[in-house]
């Protein structure tokens, strides 16, 4: 049985944070699933991984692509 810990995820646009309880031996797919369960979004552009809270996802979807990132 693995110990549980809290994983802090920060929105890369507004710095809002969420704490997710995860097992010590967590893999990336499980973290992604938990992020999505809380209506957060992960975006990857080939160079970096970005996390967005639900408010920022809506805000950025309304902007033209060249202004969003």
Structure description:
- This protein has one domain (4-68).
- The chain is built from three helices and four strands; from the N terminus they run ββαββαα.
- The chain has a two-stranded antiparallel sheet.
- The longest helix has 10 residues, at 28-37.
- The radius of gyration is 13 Å and the shape is elongated.
- It has helices spanning 28-37, 54-61, 65-68, and strands at residues 4-10, 17-23, 41-44, 49-52.
- The termini are far apart.
- The chain has 69 residues and is of the alpha+beta class.
- The model has no long low-confidence stretch (mean pLDDT 80).
Q: Summarize the biggest pleated sheet.
A: 2 strands, antiparallel
Number of strands: 4
* CA(first)-CA(last) distance: 41 Å
Shape annotation:
elongated
The radius of gyration over CA amounts to: 13 Å
Q: Mean of residue pLDDT?
A: 80
Oligomer: single chain
Element-by-element helix/strand order: EEHEEHH
Short overview:
By secondary structure, the chain is α+β, with helices and mostly antiparallel strands. It has 3 helices and 4 strands; from the N terminus they run E-E-H-E-E-H-H.
Keywords:
two-stranded antiparallel sheet; 32% strand; single chain; elongated; two-stranded antiparallel ribbon; alpha+beta
SSE diagram, text form:
Layout: E1 4-10, E2 17-23, H1 28-37, E3 41-44, E4 49-52, H2 54-61, H3 65-68
Antiparallel strand pairs: 1-2, 3-4
């Amino acid at each position: 049985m693995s110990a549980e810990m809290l994983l802090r995820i920060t929105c890369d646009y507004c710095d809002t944070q969420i704490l997710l309880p995860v097992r010590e031996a967590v893999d990336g797919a499980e973290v992604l699933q938990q992020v999505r369960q809380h209506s957060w979004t992960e975006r990857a552009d080939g160079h970096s991984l970005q996390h967005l809270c639900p408010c920022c996802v809506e805000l950025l979807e309304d902007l033209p692509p060249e202004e969003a990132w």
